[in-house]
Structures are given as C-alpha cells and as structure tokens.
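User: Can you predict the 3D structure for this chain?
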Amino acid sequence: MATLAQRTTIDATVHVTTSRPTQFIDITERIQALVRESGIACGILNVQTLHTTTGIVVNEHEPLLLDDFGSTLEAVAPSGGAYRHDSAARTVNVTADERRNGHAHCRALLVGVSTSLNVVGGALRLGRWQRIFFAELDGPQDRAISVVVVGELG
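Assistant: Here is the predicted structure, written as structure tokens:
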C-alpha cells in the first residue's frame, strides 16, 4: 500500500544591502541553505524581489559577464536619460525623499521580478554554471527578497 508524502511550504525573507547603483549579488548559497533547512526533498522554489527597481536573474557568475550586464542595462536605459517618471509633472506615488530612478524602473522591466526553480534531492536543480542573482538597479539600498519553497518532505 502506497503512503502519501508529507507536503510543506516554507516562506522566508532574505535581506540584502547593496553598495552600488547597479549591482548583481550572488544569493545562490543563501537560497540553497534555505532549501536544505526546509527539509523539502522534491518541490518548487520561487524567489521574488519586493522592490520595483530590482530584479532576480539566473545566469553565470563570471566577473566580466556581470560587467557586461551592467553595460547592457546602461545602453538600453541610461542613468542620465530623460524619464517622465523623474519629471516635476509626475503627481502619482511621489514621496518626500523621491529618488531620480526612472532608469532603474525601465531596467527592472527587462530583468524580471522573480524566478522559479526545481528542488530535487533536497537541493536546487541548477545547471553547471547557473547561479541566482539579486539585481540592484537603484542602489545602494537595503532590500528584501521573498522566498517560498513548496514540496514533499524527504
């Protein structure tokens, strides 16, 4: 007679402090640790940034490539560009400490807010060069990332 596997969900918040205006921070080890601590053997992980000027990226951790990411974003949405979001005409969602960050919002549109990854054998199922990055596009700032893992306990 087959037994039903016990299922569970974990929900955690990972905090990141960035030090540069544009920065890619490898959070793979922190996320792997959460998966291990969860006890989930097989399931799905979702990583989601909680900010509109940041992103989550899965790619290779190679320093020159990370520089290329920053250069590409600068070429597509230059930090010194003219953005209506930064103009005095804007009247929606304006705060007293408003940052000139129209470029960062446009960059976030390209990067993406979240990623879902498989959990197999109690660990993230990543390809040989894959790493998880938190992409800061309007730093430096203190940031938060929501992590949810759903699956069967091992």
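Residues 62 and 109 are 23 Å apart (CA to CA). Strands lie at 7-17, 23-26, 40-49, 54-60, 114-120, 123-124, 130-136, 142-153.
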